[in-house]
Design a protein that fits this description.
The complex is a heterodimer. Chain A is mostly helical. Chain A has helices at about 1-10, 20, 25-55, 70-80, 95-110, 130-135, 140-150, 155-185, 195-205, 215-230, 245, 255-280, 295-305, 305-325, 330-350, 355-385, 390-415, 420-425. Chain A has two domains: about 1-305 and about 355-415, no CATH class; about 310-350. Chain B has helices spanning about 1-10, 15-35, 40-60, 65-70, 80-100, 115-125, 130-150. Chain B is mainly α. Chain B folds into two domains: about 1-70, Up-down Bundle (Four Helix Bundle (Hemerythrin (Met), subunit A)), CATH 1.20.120; about 115-155. Chain B is extended and about 50 Å long. The chains are: A mainly alpha, B mainly alpha.
Amino acid sequence: MHQLIQYIQSYLSSDQTPGAAGNIFWAIVYILLVFAGLSVAVIAMNWLERKILAHMQVRLGPMRVGPHGLLQPIADALKLLLKEDIIPAEADVLVFWVAPFIVTLAAFTVFVVVPFGPTHAITDMNIGVLFMLGVSSLSVLGIVTAGWASNSHYPLIGALRSSAQMVSYEVAMGLAVVSAILMTSLNAEGTGTLSMIGIVEAQQAQGEWFIFKFFPLGLIAFFIFAVAMVAETNRAPFDLPEAESELTAGFHTEYSGFRWSLFFLAEYSAMIAVSSIAITLWLGGWLRPFPNWLSGATWDKLFSFFPGLSFLFLAGMCFFNAARMPKHSFFRIQTIGLAAFGALLGLIGLALFIPAVRVRIQDIYWFSVKVAAFMYLYIWYRGTFPRYRFDQLMKVGWKILLPVGLGVLILTATVGLWPVIRQTIWHP
Amino acid sequence: MLIGGILVITRRNAVHSALALIAALLAQAGLYLMLYAPFVAGVQIILYAGGIMVLFLFVIMLVSIERTQRERQFNRQWLVGIVAAAALGGLFITVYTKGKGIFPDRALPPVEAQNTQNVGTLLYGQYMFAFEIASLLLLVAIIGAVVMAKKRI
């Protein structure tokens, strides 16, 4: 027993990721934490997407279940779990079963290497980015098999579209990623790294996020990735595999209940996964904004108050809206509920001001804020852009993004090697 | 990996075969990981499981399944098959029993942390010429595919 406690405590002073320290207990704790956090994030995204999209279209969105529809995702989840699970008569039952699990597994496995902070990752692999791209590309298989196994026309067309789309955009995505990885090799040894933590540390060491590096090369590479990543996750305006107006629901038309909810879960966690790749490669991962301009111990301390302050702000919003609730006995429970939710948020916010918590939490906070910004962008795209036609989609992928990506890659290499090139030309 | 491989050739349904092949390829990536070659494992997942097999599935889905179900699955050349299998098996057994001299005595020290960097330096340093030839070959293949697919360029 004593040894067990010692084993558990030994990690706390090791200053490594649990995977690197080889501590199984903390690895499992981290896995559970990431899994729970992701599930909560997906539930929150479900509500936020409907709410934000509704406000963009001057509607109210879900308002009935809970104050401002806050309990809507929970009601939805319950409904999905209780729904009848239908397997079409002519479907290939085995493949039909396996497909949603492939998609979900691929979407969740990726988070093994996502660095939420210098020590807040489940593990750090030498091939981090490669692993993420590889495993997330496996989710295409799930989508394709799902569409095929349903033995129905709409899902099959959706699956074919999705496989063609994902394979073509993976190329542009890979080129953009490579040009960011090239930037990590600008150090004394001249060797780069594929490890997610190593990439962020390279940005820290160079004192610059890669999006601003070699302006505008980093920005263009980031833009290519940002477009390709929307296409990879099958979201609007590239949501042809599930285009509602043409294919009812695309590859998951025949799925219902729990299996459908697995696809939903996988789609949103894949969105979070690709955004976290983008954040790690170009936006400095867990680093706080303005590390150079506003540097020093005072600013560090000030920025570490942000997590608590933002929770307090949310709590304040809850109280404000609770006060604005209609004064009618029908709304009494909702008002009390909203106020209680606000109080909970406020308590979390106050807990985040404790110095020990504050120091440990701020990396995760900045990472989550950046992910949240990307999630908002996803919703924004969906509310703004009309859907592409399939030939236009292919044209954008192969004729614009790919050549531009290649050009950026070559230019990045040239600019990065410029000191060497200049020396060999002028001082042979 | 063996189970996956056996399933690939015994399933009647081509899509099931393809899925079994994916499982076999993923298992192979696992083998690479155990040999301290994470880079090769990652590339294996991206290229084979993620890229090539998707195209395989893409093509298989367009083929009618009813026809493949009717066709005979195995051809009747047992003799050739047995000879080939015996030759390969014999080779394996010889290498396993007498092959001590071929391989180095100890396993090499694991260099996992620098694996990717080492692969890069070797590819672009010592084996630069072979690497460039291989990429030229691929380029020729791409151009050939485009020429064959398009009647009018």
